[in-house]
Specification:
alpha/beta, transcription cis-regulatory region binding, 12 strands, DNA-binding, about 350 residues, 434 Repressor (Amino-terminal Domain), elongated, 3 domains, six-stranded parallel sheet, Rossmann fold, six-stranded mixed sheet, 15 helices, about 45% helix
Length: about 350
């Protein structure tokens, strides 16, 4: 059987009576051609059975159509869900992704960044917290971060302050005796700190008794479980018989607490109300669906990729115009009331 001949730019040029330069412009800068000429070439590609050689195109123009991603871990359901949503944007933006999990190790993440740059990625999305935005801004490619410190780079974040405020308001409406927020330690320049400040602001404005508990929970179940168990033991000792409204900084940790309570009591006791954060799949799939402050994860992912693609597209222009300052986009949260607050 005769092997099928690869269609070349020469073949397309001969078929359309255009020059090879015009054919090259169609692939690398189609907007420089009229719509009529673009259509003529597009029809010719179908008739000739053209199959693009991506490797040759990368070698020719140095553009890989790859975006690098660094995430802290895959234990917290927020990260796995937002990664899923980012990957789904391929159908819209036609960029592919190279992904590394940093596991909160600064030197490891620096090595991963160099590895990504060696693959000639065109931009990068960073969700990990270990490397400062100032250092990231010194890289030679566009950067967009999600839910982390972002002073020197573009970012897309949830309005965490609003989310903390919403959680406290929901618990207050249920007449809790004590409102409690559980979070990891975070500096004020990290978006997640807004959950703490929003929660505290509502409690102070309404003269409610509240408590903030900050612990390091690690990046796996083995690290989180003993910390949540210790917190529960303390709460039971300090507030026996009192109605406890608990806002936890992630659905993953909220689910750990819910499971501990159900193992001990066989159900969620009436004196415990529980609100998570993220609206990740675990909040809906838990043994009791968890009330949560929902990050609009699909919008966070889409806007991050869109913002990055805008910058990458600008860089491809003959005279690119850099941003005057980083763009910071804020997405409002949505409160979801489920069984962990509506059971009593």
């Amino acid at each position: 059987m005769k092997e099928k001949k690869n269609v070349t730019f020469n073949d397309i040029a001969d078929y359309t009576n255009f020059s090879k330069t015009t054919i090259s412009r169609y692939f690398n800068n189609p907007d420089s051609l009229t719509l009529k000429n673009q259509q003529i070439i597009s029809d010719a590609l179908v008739k000739l059975g053209y199959q693009e050689n991506k490797v040759a195109r990368i070698l020719a123009n140095g553009k890989t159509e790859f975006i690098g991603i660094i995430i802290p871990d895959l234990y917290y359901h927020f990260y796995s869900e937002i990664l899923n949503q980012i990957l789904s944007t391929y159908e819209v933006f036609n960029y592919k992704f190279l992904i590394f999990v940093g596991n909160k190790n600064e030197e490891t993440e620096r090595r991963y960044i160099q590895e990504l740059l060696a693959y000639k990625i065109e931009g990068m999305i960073i969700l990990s917290h270990t490397i400062s935005s100032k250092e990231l801004s010194g890289l030679s490619i566009p950067i967009v971060t999600i839910e982390r410190e972002d002073r020197y780079v573009c970012s897309v974040n949830t309005d965490n302050h609003m989310g903390g405020y919403q959680a406290a308001a929901l618990l207050a409406r249920h007449k809790c005796d004590i409102l409690i927020h559980i979070n990891s330690p975070a500096s004020e320049d990290v978006p997640a700190h807004g959950r703490l400040s929003g929660f505290s602001d509502f409690c102070r404005e309404n003269s409610l008794e509240y408590r903030i508990i900050q612990k390091e929970f690690g990046h796996d179940y083995k690290g989180a479980l003993p910390q949540i168990r210790t917190i529960l033991d303390d709460l039971e000792s300090l507030y026996p018989g009192q109605k406890k409204g608990i806002f936890i900084s992630s659905d993953t940790l909220a689910n750990v607490m819910l499971n501990l309570l159900i193992r001990k009591y066989g159900t969620l006791p009436e004196d415990y109300l529980l609100v998570g954060f993220d609206n990740s799949p675990i909040s809906r799939e838990a043994v009791l669906p968890i009330s949560t402050v929902g990050q609009q994860i699909d919008k966070l992912a889409y806007e991050a990729v869109r913002l990055l693609v805008e910058q990458m597209t600008e860089q491809k222009k003959r005279k690119p115009v850099p941003l005057d300052k980083p763009v910071h986009k804020i997405i409002p949260p949505i409160l979801f009331r489920r069984e962990t607050t509506e059971h009593s």
